[in-house]
Write a structure and sequence with these properties.
The chain is α/β, with parallel strands linked by helices and 212 residues long. The protein has one domain: Phosphoglycerate mutase-like (Rossmann fold). Helices cover 29% and strands 18% of the residues. It has 6 helices and 8 strands; from the N terminus they run E-H-E-H-E-H-E-E-H-H-E-H-E-E. The strands form 2 sheets. The chain has a 6-stranded mixed β-sheet. Helix 5 packs across helix 6. The protein is globular, with a radius of gyration of 17 Å.
């Protein structure tokens, strides 16, 4: 299976340093330009299907990013399992305020992955959700040559990468996923299971044009 992970375009929350979590956020000025670029790139493929399946987070910033690429996929689905880490009562707060209020260690989740945002999730919760997504939506593709595109968020997609590659939570995030860029991972499993999967990162910071 060839797995492609596309992070949503830049949002106003990204620019402002806001903990957005599972709240919706509008694209920033740069994000709007990224959407135009995605639309142009998708149109250049002349509606040739290059993905067997596209799965996106239902949050607005991810869905807006996925929509220009819908025409390139045979099958399109939305999954709540792909939503960003739920930052609970601190959603819409500045990250620096959360770090000040709770604990300076909060700047890096990996120091205490079992910490749960008040009214929200912990990093361990996110990893459990990522594993469930793999089992329900990806595992069936492990033994074939499917090309699957995921459009989502840095936190959840990073957790998926960790689970696929067997990287411990203490190293989170192992990869920096940039807005509107694609990470390409090749997944092979002779038995069709995560435990026996061999995963290799084939590309990082890719554009849509580079996938042909």
């Amino acid at each position: 299976m060839d797995l492609y992970l596309l992070r949503h375009v830049e949002s106003e929350a990204n620019v402002s340093g806001i903990l957005c979590g599972q709240m919706d956020a509008e694209p920033s000025r740069v994000g709007k330009d990224q959407l135009k670029s995605l639309s142009k790139s998708a149109a250049s493929h002349n509606r040739v299907k290059i993905f067997d399946q596209l799965i996106h987070s239902p949050l607005k910033r991810a869905k807006l990013t996925a929509e220009p690429v819908f025409q390139l996929a045979d099958s399109i689905h939305s999954s709540e399992l792909l939503m960003e880490l739920d930052t609970g009562t601190y959603s819409s707060s500045l990250k620096k305020d959360f770090v000040r209020d709770i604990d300076s260690r909060a700047e890096t989740h990996n120091l205490f992955p079992d910490f749960r945002y008040p009214g929200g999730e912990s990093l361990l919760d996110l990893f459990e959700r990522a594993e469930k997504f793999i089992e329900e939506s990806l595992q069936k593709h492990f033994m074939n040559n499917s090309r699957v595109l995921i459009v989502g968020h840095h936190g959840c997609m990073s957790a998926i990468i960790h689970k696929l590659m067997g990287i411990e939570v203490k190293h989170f995030p192992c990869i920096e996923l940039r807005n509107a860029k694609i990470c390409h991972i090749q997944v092979n499993s002779s038995e069709g299971s995560l435990e026996n999967a061999v995963c290799k990162i084939k590309g990082l910071d890719l554009s849509l044009e580079q996938l042909v």
